[in-house]
Every structure is written in C-alpha cells, then in structure tokens.
Amino acid sequence: MCFDTTASNTGQMKGACTLLEKQLGKSLLYLACRHILEVVLRSVFEYKIGSTTAPQPDIFRRFQIHWPNIDQPKYIEGVQDDSVKKSVKEFEKEVSEFLLFQLTEKQPRDDYLELIKLCLIFLGKVPSHDVSFNTPGAYHHARWMAKAIYFLKMFIFREQFSMSEEEFSSLKAICLFIVNLYVKMWCQASNAISAPSNDLQFVQNVIKYRRIDQGVSDKVLGKYLLHLWYLNPELICLSLFDKNVSNEIKSKMAKKILSYSNLTEEERSSRIMRVQVSEDEAVNLFKNISLQNFVLDQSLAFFEYFKVKTDFLTEDPKKWSESKDFLKLQRCRVVQREGLS
Questions:
Q1: What is the C-alpha end-to-end distance of the chain, expressed in Å?
Q2: N or C terminus of the chain with fewer C-beta within 10 Å?
C-alpha cells in the first residue's frame, strides 16, 4: 500500500504512518506529494520580487489593468534579448524538444498547456502564425501557476509594459529559471516512476545553474534538499521501471540490491524516509553521483511490500519483462501511479 503526505516533519509523518500500519497489519510505502515545486517557485519569486501577503502583487495588478492596451501581434521573444539568449544556451535544446513533445500530449489543465506554449514562445520555438495569448486571469496565492504565466507574459510584452529597471531585472531572472529548469520538472511531477531520476537530475541542474544565477540556485537548492523523499532506499527502486534510465544504471542498481541479504527487524524499523544532505555537502556530493549510489540494504523492503522475489535482477534488464515478478510490480498502481502533484 502507499501513503501520500505533504508533511515536512518526518517524525510526525512516521508516527502517523506507524499507527496506520498497525491498524492495517501491513507495511506502507510512503509516497510524498510534489508540492515542493510550488515552494521552489515561491522561493524564487520572493527572492526576486519580495514577499507579499496581498491577494495580488502590484506588478501583476498593473499588468492585468494594462492588458487591453497590449498589441498582441507585437510580442517579443525572450531570446531576442542578448543576455537571455546567452543564459538559455545550455538548456535550450533539451527543454525545447521536451516542450514540443508535450504539445502532442494531453495536459491535465489548460494552464499547463498555456505555460508550455509561453515557454516555447519565450525560446522562439513557435511559428508566428501559431501564437496567441490568453487574457491574464485571476491571481491568488493558491493558484501558484498563475505566477509563472504572468512572469512570462510580462517579459514577452516587455516593450509595451512599463517597469522599473529593478522589476525588469527580477522578471528576467524569474523567467530564466522557469524556462531553463522549472517547466520541465513541473510537467513530469506527476510521474512516480521518474521521480527519483528527475529529482537527482534537477538537483544537479540547479547546482550547474550557479553559473547563470548563483542567488536563485542557492535559494532553490536550499528548499529542494529538504524534500529528497524519492531518493530514499525504497523509492529509488522505482527507477528500475523508468524507461528513461539506462540499462547500464539499472544493472548497477540491481547488482547493489542483490549484494544485500534479508533485512533484520532493526533495519526494517529504522527506515530512511528522506535523504538528508546539507547545502555545504550538496555541491560536491551530487557532482558525480548516480541512482545506484542511493541503493542500500533497506531497498530490499520495496520488494517485500509487494511480496515479489528479486531473482529477475540477476538477468540483463532487457530480459526483465519476461519475469512474472517484474511484471507484477510493473502492473501495480504504485509503479503506474500519476497525480502526485
């Protein structure tokens, strides 16, 4: 069974889950919610724009009022700004290809699709005859995606919307973070299988982002390191089913899992819920680390929960689909699970 949680206090969460496990008479696999991505965006927003308790920040309200005066065909792509073009160079190809593919997929809501299209317009990857813009909608603290949509629109219409130099600089920095790192991560947030791999890649990309904006990088890294639930020894096993993880990495993970014997009761009770890494350690630790480095003896618990053997791990990953145990895990709701966001 699985248990979703947004709790940031590990002790409280483990206590609640322990009570549930006793009531149910079985162990639970803990799947944390992905609301950390909202926290990350808010941290960048507050770092660059400032914290606000008002229902609608002043710059958003001004843009909404000014919208009827905007000549929409006269938008300007983000990459027409030389500093933007330079700052998106490292991630542009990967992000553009990913977003163009997302246009062929059904999106959960209209604002997901709008965010994807705005990022592509920002990158200059949408033909001019396909460009259209929605009227800026209501903004409030709960509808966090409106932040990203507002930021991108304001920058795309930067020559038609009056801003101070400080506002423009902050706006540019936020848009660069959204386009370079954030949008791809958010679009994949609901896929449980890819969560371990995506989390590891995101942290590594955030560290690389120091070359573009160290302040934003440090803010995001500080928040995300507190939420490395999917890199724990149990959930790292989800990567065995991730089609985007190479067979070489899967083989290394399998070999390490097989190197451990059965779990003792002490090992089973001292579960690692969340990988804990300090900001000082993170830069060096994540530089050359890979998924197999997160496999520990407690990874065996993942297979115990579903009562499957690990024998298929002795085979080449290409042959895993021939195993009944592998197929049993692949069919289970946890491995197929979406909607974690």
A1: 19
A2: N
